[in-house]
Amino acid sequence: MKFMIQSNLFVALCTIVMMGCTPDGTEDKPEKPPEPIAQVQTVELHLSEIQETINVYGTVLPWPDKLQTVSVPYTSRIEKILLNEGQSFQKGDVMLLLKPADDANLQLAQAKEELKAAQQEQHLVQERLKLKLATQMERATVQLRTEQAKVMIANLADRGVNQNHQLKADHAGIVHLLNVQQNQIVPAGNPILQWMDKNQWVVRVGVEPEDKERLQLNQEVLLTPANKPNSLPIKGRIATITNQIDPVTRLLTVFVNPESNQDLLINDYMDAKIILATATTLVAPRQALLPDGKTYRLFTIEKGHAVQHKVQVGIENDTQAEVIASDVKDHDEIVVLGNYELEDGMVVEVQKP
Length: 353
Prior knowledge:
Layout: H1 2-19, E1 37-44, E2 46-62, E3 68-71, E4 76-81, E5 88-89, E6 94-100, H2 102-130, H3 136-158, E7 165-168, E8 173-178, E9 185-186, E10 191-196, E11 201-207, E12 220-225, E13 234-245, E14 252-258, E15 269-285, E16 290-292, E17 295-302, E18 305-316, E19 320-324, E20 333-337, E21 347-350
Parallel strand pairs: 1-21
Antiparallel strand pairs: 1-20, 2-11, 2-15, 3-10, 4-6, 4-9, 5-8, 6-7, 8-10, 11-14, 12-13, 12-15, 13-14, 15-19, 16-17, 17-18, 18-19
Helix pairs in contact: 2-3
């Protein structure tokens, strides 16, 4: 009985051993874990023009040396103002109506009284000269006094003291600054308004002082009115680079001369792009470039795998950069999203944006 139990145990053990063996005598190996797949988005590397720019802001102003100043020839009262600041006018248009002020009228009346008195004295000197009671010196003196009075009256009359005056434009232009108000008394020689020719604009921009060495005269600038951000830029050129920091903005003042015949508005706020360099080269979005010390990493896609490239960056702006490398070319598929998780040779799946 004991022998039969031992025999059954032996058979059971042999069965278990045989069940654990494969028919060819080999054991099952564990499965290899699947290789990770990175999800990325790509764009095509392309050959195009890129510009390195400095973005600044400025204001439309008239050229200082183009401003014309109008003043009154005699002490006047402003009877009526027919133009406002910023208003255009044509040659011959009446700008203001002037009346002689009381002081001017008094000056004319005094000149007339002086002439009358000088003529009376001249008559008396002539009579005394006939009686040998006056000298030729007295005659010359009174004649000089008479002539001076006549010149004074003629001068005041030429300046319009004896009549109301219409101040007319002798040239077409735009009013820049109006210095007077209605019924104001303006002394002779005082400026009453400033005007300028059309299209005599300059755009004053502020540049960071550390960028001064990158600026040059005649450098191209693209100007866009701040209230029309989607309009076509107006081309301009740097006309003046000052050596003065604005005490309010702490920026370097630079004057840009826009192209002629542009419809700009005085005091309009402008966005300006100063073009430092332009090149036609391989251009990539900035997000495709990963900093790597003094160089950058760029990933392309080849046969479903990521390929890492060491590249240099040339001209760059806010959105794009020039790619300099011997192992990348036009139309290469480059990774712009998901590249931070990539390694060289990694399997990738390209997703559509």
